[in-house]
Amino acid sequence: MEKKFSFAEQPKRVKIIYALAIAILCITAIVIGLVSAAQQKDELPPENNTPPVTEGGEGGEAEKPTVYLAPAVGTVTVTHSNDAPVFSPTLGEWRIHTGIDIATPEGAEVRSIAAGKVTKVYTHPMHGMTVEIDHGADVVSVYSNLATKVAVKEGDTVKPGTKLGTVGDTSVKELADEPHLHFEVRLKGACIDPLGIISEESKKASFGME
Ligand SMILES: [Zn+2]
Q1: Boundaries of domain holding 17
Q2: What gap in Å lies between CA 67 and CA 160, rounded to an integer?
Q3: CA 157 / ligand 1 centre spacing (Å)
């Protein structure tokens, strides 16, 4: 007497084997799927695998440089004073000094304190030939009293230590002073003390400051 196959009538042991076989088939199918997907990914041309590079890192915002160098080698003769006025021999009056003066011979090299972009090259009515560099993160460095012939132009990208020009005597405001670089740093548009951000190592090496 022939009996039709009926799953329900199979012994428990056989049912378990069936269930296991189906489970193994499913797992194998999933594994094969994952492996082939991974292989496909590997086969893509490398340029399609590279995420788009945004200037200055994530979010498109430039990262703040961590180390700022001294802009010139010399002696800091006039310090920054937003509050306490400094006497100007040229003008014969006491004025606040928005930057620092680094006494150094005419022709001495002036270098960028960090990576950035040259935003302005112009003759300031008081401070003379001036170069401004935007370092991102709202930090701008300003180099004044340069020789007329500067080494960079607006839009140039600079690295830490890129030569910007040389010290000149183009400042009207500080004409009577010895040859020097008038140097300012602005944070969110406000002048801050440049000595507060230049690295201790660089101050020691370039200004002889301990
Ligand atoms: Zn000055």
Answers
A1: 7-43
A2: 9
A3: 26
